[in-house]
Amino acid sequence: MNLLAHPELLELLAASHALGTLRGGARRRFETLAREQAPVRAAALVWQGRLASMTELQSPVVPDAAVWTRIRNMIDAEQARDAIERQRGATPNASASPSGWLRSLALWRGAAAAGALATVMAVVVGLNLRDQLQNAPAIQYVAVLSDDKATASMLVTFDPRKRQLLLQRVGSYDEGGDKSLQLWALPPGGAPRSLGVLDHAPALRLPASESDVHAVPALAVTLEAKGGVPPGSGPKGPVVFKGALIEKTI
Length: 250
Hints:
The protein is of the alpha+beta class. The protein has helices spanning 7-19, 24-36, 38-51, 65-87, 99-134, 210-213, and strands at 141-146, 152-159, 164-169, 179-186, 193-198, 203-207, 218-225, 239-247.
């Protein structure tokens, strides 16, 4: 199936991949497509970025040590009883002696309680995730910028509501303290247009309007002298990342 022709399915698969619910062959096929197709890779990276802070939504909850000790003791006692019966040559008969089931009842109740706690935690996290997604940026354009070895190095998205570009470094490139990275729009038939100079932060927001990215087929990042090139000048240094800018449905 061509995922690019089914954007809703692509978003669903990318979200499932980021959540970890896409498994087995489906996950492997999605990852293969992500390596081969920039729009699929971009969707995966967008959802990973959206869910990256989920671990910060809730404080870790450690079960009381006594709970696990009690469960372990019950399991050990059940195993010891079975071993003694085997030594005596007596086969446990569940219908004649329900004591094994009765002794296991507390264990299953404990497991049920743990499951209920997990369900409550899942609901709380789900509500927080819903709020987070409702406040997530509207993404109109997306680009995955890669180096000369086709390794993804930077994710660029444009939010028309906030009128800004969000750049996220996904590689380990280091420009050094005496150099700066500069982002360029590459309009068809025109000179490169600077969209801003990047700092060393893993995520950066740059002010931009839709006219800055509309009808721009590609973006590039060059390595320039500290502070970037003067306004009105074109790029002076080498291109380190580049990639297609894709318009997507909000």
